[in-house]
Amino acid sequence: MSTKGVLAPNHAELAPTRRSAETTDFSYERHLLFDLAIDPKMASARERFEAFSHSVRDILAERWVQTKTTYERENPKRIYYLSMEFLIGRSLANNVTNLLLDPLVQQSAQEKGIDWLELIEQEPDAGLGNGGLGRLAACFLDSMATMQLPATGYGLRYEYGMFKQSIADGWQKENGDNWLRDIDPWEIAHPHEKVEVKLNCSFQVRAGNVQLIPGKPSSLIGIPFDRPVVGYGGKTINTLRLWAAAAPEYFDFQEFGTGDFVGAVGETLEAESLTRVLYPDDSTTLGQELRFLQEYFLVACSLADLVRRFLRHNLDWNLLPEKVAIQLNDTHPSMAVAELMRILLDDAHLGWDQAWDLTKKTLAYTNHTLLPEALEKWPAAWFEILLPRHLEIVYEINRRLVDGVRVRFPGDEGRVQRISLVEEGPQRKIRMANLAIVGSHSTNGVAAIHSKLLRTTTVKDLAEMFPERFSNKTNGVTPRRWLLEANPGLARAITEVIGEEWITDLSQFARLKSFADDSSARELFHASKLEAKTRFVDWLQSSSGQIVDPNSIFDCQIKRIHEYKRQLLNALRIVVVYNRLRANPDVEVEPRTFFFAGKAAPAYRLAKLIIKFINNLAVAIDNDPAVRGRLKVVFLPEYNVSLAERLIPASDVSNQISTAGYEASGTSNMKFMMNGALTVGTRDGATIEMAEEAGEENFFLFGLTVEQVENSRGWYSPYWHYENEPETRAALDLIFSDHFSRDEPGVFAPLRDTLLTHGDHYMHLADLTSYCQAQERLGALYADPDAWAHKAILNVASSGKFSSDRTIAEYAADIWKVKSCPVL
């Protein structure tokens, strides 16, 4: 689907914004001198980065102001995107790319004798997310700005990200990710636009834990920090507004005077702790309470801010759905339903029916997961203590809801209980996903199979009650970040073949299909892949000392470590190959380097054990002369956006091997496809649609389908595979013989329990043989460079659907009813 026209400017329209050194005052040295009071000749790399970034911000600032002024003047319908995560990565290189400043920057760096690559390494990845949810939100913001849609992102300004990951003796170690330790040159604080958030209780933080104090009302102050979101070409620069928590002006002079210096500012310290850390470990009640507070803080600040903006130009509340579209990115911001009702009922003094109609028309909800634990349920007791008015509103919404269910489905009390916003039990809970669905006009999944399962399984009763509200919006990724910037060699090759319009219209990629059999096009592809692999190998050696062979197959699985994503299945496959080579050293195989990267939640013990196993496997393979030089396993710590930008362009193989029915969509799969990697995958998430676009003959699909997984639940026995598949048995026996843990006997016993004793819930063993066979077919193809390039080019050519521009065009047309608002 093309996104050109009303919603997306084409590349030719963007090109006039391109700047040159002759037309732009690049004030790099001025910032060193006047902002930092540093002699440019004495500046450190970090100081040069800050000065460079401020210089780029100078260039975009005028356009940023013009964008805001245009929205104020035109009063268009605006999009407000609420998300607990925005995994934006580094901003300098991305902003330079989108502002079309590359020639200027390269010239300036050359003239000043600056190492550009060293410079961009000084910027930490912004610690505002931990995975695909946050990266998707960042891609969406990029697309909205590029398509000149009036949009604002709302999130929290976490001082610490998820955590910094290191590996010690094979185990994951977690360290603080204080990404704001140094100044962030992109953010601008707006304390004059602060928001007061009233709570019905107070809270205190002790040893990192939040404790609620009932009966003592208090307030928090939300301080907004704005970051520019630069659309490609620099014509529109939208805003990502992040909220930091603070206390009302507070200083206890009595405590200070008696020597209790900490107590004098204790309330401030406790308030600031609310946004100290990316939403915390929720394996404990205390962690869940802090996440509950964070979610309400995000919602309360954001709605107050957007309502304040709405009221500047609109006096009639009935215009709210015509001027405001609020998108809830997953279940975390679901309290927006109750908060918007509270505003309309208590502040605007509207009647219930009018307030409810406006709320539903204004809010829309995206569901990102089928996992029950992610469909949040919060104890009603927490609402009673913290937000009693919101609980009253939720109960009234629910009373009217269940009355309607009983009218439509008389006598079906089971359905009433399943649809109810209130889950009865030893501890009464509020079902937040149900609240989001009931309180909005739109609920969408993020891949065709996910949306189908959402409607037919996860919230089947609600979908039958409100069928018109459900739709699918398959995810996408921005080609500016994930191809133009991350893979310059391939981007140049594509532009040489089809021109540069693809940058803002990825449907142009379809024109590449006719070049799959062109020898010069295949040569360009091979050259660009080798360029990306060499660049990655050089970075890996310089950053970690690890040496890998760029001529080996780069076989990658990079994503959050979770049982359903099945990094363990990948590791089992490697053990099978390892056993084959040990048994027959003369067998012909293409050398492979297996890359893993991803973080395990600190309390997720089995996921951390899987990381340990992968690292021990790597050591054993390195130390075995029978396979050395033919197999290599590398676990890359501290997986983040910047690492993905390096590894994905270099990858030959993308492993998308989740148990069918568990991955909502996936977006790393799209990035790999766009960069010419071939996919080995299950029929799950967006991989199904990717294979449909490219043709299944150009994918390596394997394993059980969603229906087969579900239909075999009652009788599946992993022991059957252990007893009847010799390679499966040999691989497991080798692991459990402590071959990979000679100094730590028994350390991998929990893997045996997971795979055999406890029933292998995610069906690793059921899919292992099929997975190995798919990998064998892939290895045979790699031995034929022309045939490999043919399939790889067809994959790139078929990735046009998976641009976030297409996704956002569908949101804008079908859900938000928002049009572009060009900045003149």
Provide a descriptive summary of the structure in words.
The protein is α/β, with parallel strands linked by helices and 824 residues long. The protein is built from 35 helices and 21 strands. The strands form four sheets. Strands 1, 2, 5, 6, 7, 8, 9, 10, 14 and 15 form a ten-stranded mixed sheet that branches. It has a six-stranded parallel sheet with strand order 18-17-16-19-20-21, sandwiched between helices. The radius of gyration is 27 Å and the shape is globular.
Using only C-alpha atoms, the radius of gyration works out to 27 Å
Query: Strand tally, please?
Result: 21
Q: Assembly state here?
A: single chain
Structural category is alpha/beta
List the helices and strands and how they pair.
Blueprint: H1 11-14, H2 28-35, H3 45-74, E1 78-82, H4 92-98, H5 102-112, H6 116-120, H7 132-146, E2 151-156, E3 164-168, E4 171-175, E5 188-189, E6 195-206, E7 209-230, E8 237-246, H8 253-257, H9 261-264, H10 266-272, H11 285-311, H12 320-323, E9 324-329, H13 336-347, H14 352-362, E10 363-366, E11 377-379, H15 380-386, H16 388-408, H17 413-419, E12 422-423, E13 429-431, H18 432-438, E14 443-445, H19 448-458, H20 460-465, E15 470-472, H21 479-485, H22 488-498, H23 519-544, E16 553-558, H24 567-583, E17 592-597, H25 605-622, E18 631-636, H26 641-650, E19 653-656, H27 668-674, E20 678-681, H28 687-694, E21 700-701, H29 706-711, H30 718-724, H31 726-736, H32 749-757, H33 764-782, H34 785-797, H35 804-816
Parallel strand pairs: 1-2, 1-9, 2-8, 9-10, 10-14, 14-15, 16-17, 16-19, 17-18, 19-20, 20-21
Antiparallel strand pairs: 3-4, 5-7, 6-7, 7-8, 11-13, 12-13
Helix pairs in contact: 2-3, 4-21, 7-35, 13-14, 13-16, 15-16, 16-17, 22-23, 23-26, 23-34, 24-25, 24-31, 24-33, 30-31
